[in-house]
Write a structure and sequence with these properties.
This protein is an alpha/beta fold. The chain has one domain (3-240): TIM Barrel. It contains 8 helices and 8 strands, in the order E-H-E-E-H-E-H-E-H-E-H-E-H-H-E-H. It has helices spanning 12-24, 73-80, 106-116, 133-146, 159-168, 184-193, 206-222, 236-240; strands at residues 3-6, 31-34, 57-63, 85-89, 121-126, 150-155, 173-178, 226-229. The chain has an 8-stranded parallel β-barrel with strand order 1-2-3-4-5-6-7-8. Strand 6 (150-155), helix 5 and strand 7 (173-178) form a beta-alpha-beta unit. It is globular.
């Protein structure tokens, strides 16, 4: 099992702090995953020079709406930073339209990048909450047919869904998202923004989230899946000291 840790580049100092924390964990973490967030100054791929790539695989996110395929800009970034893995997502339009964006379909982008870089590890995203299961699985299959060889999911909050998706993701390098929620405000955000339906047993506290994560790790291992940690505004030490990495 591979375990990826997402570090959000709010600032270089914040990035370095979380990266230092990851290095103190045991050898279970072997991938650093960096989202590209429009409101931050640092772009995901720029963190390549701050990662020990002999120890961690580095997977930066790229938003399809930021790139015009025919411009070749994404190709140049992949080459200049010597990337061997990328995660291609659709991306939300910039707030206030302060930055240019394009109507680039992520499936088309996956296909174009695969044609240009046959040996590149191309990952895509999938979301167990945004639409019906069959529609999401069909969308995932379209991405796989275009050239994606693996997937990173939005966070799960019901381990029963993992068993269902595992049947549909066979043969794909799949990472199951885990993102602890420890406040009611965060729970409300995920319900409204991301259409998450929480189980009745859910509690926004560390005890529930730690127990859930450990059960989800075991379930993922049983289904030959990988894990993708997305810790957002939590006490990393309080959370990870009780997480059973495999």
């Amino acid at each position: 099992m591979n375990i990826s840790f997402e570090i959000v580049p709010r600032s270089l100092e914040a990035f370095d702090e979380q990266y230092a924390f990851v290095q103190k964990l045991d050898d279970g973490i072997n991938i650093i995953n960096v989202p590209d967030i429009q409101r931050f100054d640092t772009r995901s791929w720029e963190l390549a020079i701050r990662i020990d790539r002999s120890k961690y695989r580095f997977i930066p996110h790229f938003r399809a709406i930021d790139f015009k395929i025919e411009s070749g800009e994404l190709y140049r970034i992949i080459e200049n930073y010597e990337l061997d893995s990328v995660l291609l997502v659709t991306g939300d339009p910039p707030e206030g339209l302060k930055r240019a964006f394009y109507n680039t379909d992520v499936v088309d982008l996956i296909r174009a990048v695969r044609q240009r870089f046959p040996g590149l590890n191309i990952y895509a995203g999938f979301d167990p909450h945004r639409q019906g299961l069959q529609d999401e699985c069909d969308y995932t299959q379209r991405k796989a047919e275009a050239g994606a060889t693996g997937f990173f999911s939005q966070p799960f909050y019901d381990h029963r869904l993992v068993d269902i998706y595992a049947e549909h993701m066979q043969g794909l390098d799949t990472y199951i998202g885990i993102s602890p929620i420890t406040t009611m405000a965060s729970k409300n955000y995920w319900e409204v923004k991301n259409k998450v339906k929480f189980p009745v047993s859910f509690r926004p506290d560390y005890d529930w989230n730690v127990e859930f994560a450990n059960n989800l790790i075991a379930s993922a291992a049983a289904n030959n899946l990988n894990i993708y940690f997305m810790p957002i505004r939590i006490d990393l030490h309080k959370y990870f000291e009780r997480i059973k990495l495999v």
